[in-house]
Design brief:
The complex is a heterodimer of chains A (about 220) and B (about 250). Chain A is globular and about 50 Å long. The two termini of chain A are about 20 Å apart. Chain A is α/β, with parallel strands linked by helices and about 220 residues long. In chain A, the strands form 2 sheets. In chain A, strands 6-7-8-3-9-10 form a 6-stranded mixed beta sheet, with helices on both faces. Helices cover about 35% and strands about 25% of the residues of chain A. Chain B has about 250 residues and is mainly alpha-helical. Chain B contains 9 helices and 2 strands, in the order H-H-H-H-E-E-H-H-H-H-H. Chain B is flat and about 70 Å long. The two termini of chain B are about 40 Å apart. Chain B folds into 2 domains: about 140 residues, no CATH class; about 90 residues, no CATH class. The longest helix of chain B is centred in the last third of the chain and has 32 residues. In chain B, helix 1 runs antiparallel to helix 5 and helix 7 packs antiparallel against helix 8. Classes of the chains: A alpha/beta (about 220), B mainly alpha (about 250). Chains A and B meet through helix 2, strand 6 and helix 3 of A and helix 7 and helix 8 of B.
């Protein structure tokens, strides 16, 4: 799946003549690690939200392969793209860690056996097994981050957008996150990571896009 | 008091509170639509005088149009009386009384919304200061200010949660009502957890900054009622009593 932004502009205020995102053209393939960097207020998170269909462009269009996402519901976008908010608490809903992973699958109509298998795999993969009956809001920041990722990935998205995933994580948690992302890359799940953490990005990124004032300042492939 | 260029806004927030309370009281007491219409026109004029952004506020309630229309049907179905306009068998779907009651509910709602928009022409800090000078305990006025400050943030959080729930691949439009309600129930938990968390953090923060440490608070900015304020308050209260007297007797 390719994500293409064609002449995309976005304004938070209707009558503002200085849009947050200005006539942006980006093509991102579903393979590899693309980093989106830039200073505060440069428009990084806005681009991420536009790509995930959370915001609709005021001008231009965004395509998943050839399909314009204007015509897609958030639910159908979510089947292709997973979005991790900067604050993982905004995407935690259930009273236990395990239920957090399973409740969407139940609603989608998966069988009990399938749900149990998928949940156990995710709990193991994200080192959350020992916390499966815990109240998610009492977890540490790093654990919440892992839970948010696991809950998104259990739906098998083809592409991930992570907004500042290393914010407030200590070195150990960052290492854990690195391992998880490496595994996902090996499984051919592409990702766009919005970050300020240049050291974190340097280790991974196949491509770095630098944004300034809502425009691309620099776009280069590292390998 | 904040000095604003707009003369009408230089009224003390306390006189605006009295005015809004009087208008809202009349809107609640009036059952007769022919009393409500002039009150609605008066409320619009007051809002225009205060240059409040009432149109935007009304526009935000456009999603409730369906409920307003439903109100007419509900009133027609459950309140007997009036002439039948639309009937299916023995079942009255729309009646003149239903329309009358439905419109009066809508009007009452609009009067309260438009009059409340007048309060938005004063800053929340001034309103809190006004209430404090009315000897309302600072702990209560502070809570009002905090609620005003946090509402937009909570709204944004709720919206993000709803979006992230859908981005898990949940196509709400394809779900049955039972499943939809089940999904919505999952939104409550993080919202309550977030509010409790924020309340805890905020209470710690204000304690650390010395809230309630002093026997008596002093204020850098104090409000002073002027002649115009007294006139507005006196006219609002006396006219309200007079109108209610004529309405009921």
């Amino acid at each position: 799946m390719n994500i293409s932004l064609k002449n995309v502009s976005y304004n938070y205020e209707k009558n503002n003549f200085n849009p947050t995102i200005k006539n942006l053209n980006i093509d991102i393939s579903n393979k590899g690690f693309t980093a989106l960097i830039g200073s505060n207020g440069s428009g990084k998170t806005t681009i991420g939200k536009l790509m995930a269909g959370i915001l609709k462009p005021t001008k231009g269009n965004i395509f998943y392969n050839a399909e314009n996402i204007r015509n897609m519901s958030l639910g159908s976008i979510g089947k292709n793209v997973g979005y991790i908010f900067q604050d993982p608490e905004r995407q935690i809903f259930a009273p236990t860690v395990k239920e957090e992973l399973t409740f969407v699958l139940k609603i989608k109509g998966f069988s009990e056996e399938e749900i149990e298998n998928k949940a156990e795999k995710m709990l193991l993969k994200f080192r959350l097994s020992h916390l499966k009956d815990n109240f998610p809001f009492n977890l540490s920041r790093g654990e919440k981050q892992r839970l948010a990722l696991a809950a998104v990935l259990i739906n098998s998205p083809k592409f991930l957008i992570l907004d500042e995933p290393t914010t407030a994580l200590d070195i150990r948690c960052k290492e854990e996150l690195k391992d998880i992302l490496k595994n996902l890359l090996n499984q051919n799940i592409g990702m766009l990571v919005i970050s300020h953490d240049y050291k974190f990005i340097d280790n991974f990124a196949d491509r770095v896009i630098e944004i300034s004032g809502g425009e691309i300042k620099n776009d280069h492939f590292k390998k | 008091m904040t000095i604003l260029k707009n003369n009408s806004n230089q009224l003390d927030p306390r006189s605006k509170i009295i005015l809004v309370m009087c208008i809202s009281t009349l809107a609640v007491f009036f059952q007769n639509i022919f009393w409500m219409i002039p009150l609605f026109i008066f409320t619009l004029l007051v809002s225009i005088f205060f240059k409040s952004n009432f149109f935007n506020l009304i526009w935000k309630f456009k999603k409730f149009i369906g409920i307003f229309v439903a109100m007419i049907f509900i009133q027609s179905i459950f309140v007997s009386g009036g002439e039948e306009i639309l009937k299916i068998g023995n079942f009255t779907l729309i009646s003149t009384l239903g329309i009358y009651n439905g419109v009066s509910i809508i009007l009452r709602f609009l009067i309260i919304i438009v009059s409340a928009s007048v309060m938005a022409t004063s800053s929340s800090r001034d309103i809190v200061q006004g209430l404090y000078q009315w000897k309302i305990p600072y702990e209560i006025t502070f809570m009002v200010a905090v609620a005003v400050r946090f509402l937009p943030m909570l709204k944004e959080e709720a919206s993000d949660m709803f979006i992230s729930l859908q981005l898990r691949g949940v196509e709400l439009e394809k779900l049955s009502l039972r499943k939809k309600l089940n999904i919505y129930s999952y939104l409550l938990m993080p919202m309550i957890a977030s509010v409790i968390g924020k309340a805890g953090e905020l209470s710690l923060a204000v304690e650390m900054r010395g809230l309630r440490a002093d026997y008596k608070r002093t204020s850098f900015k104090t409000l002073k009622l002027r002649f115009n304020d007294y006139i507005i308050m006196l006219l609002s209260v006396s006219f309200t009593f007079l109108i209610l007297f004529f309405y009921f007797f």
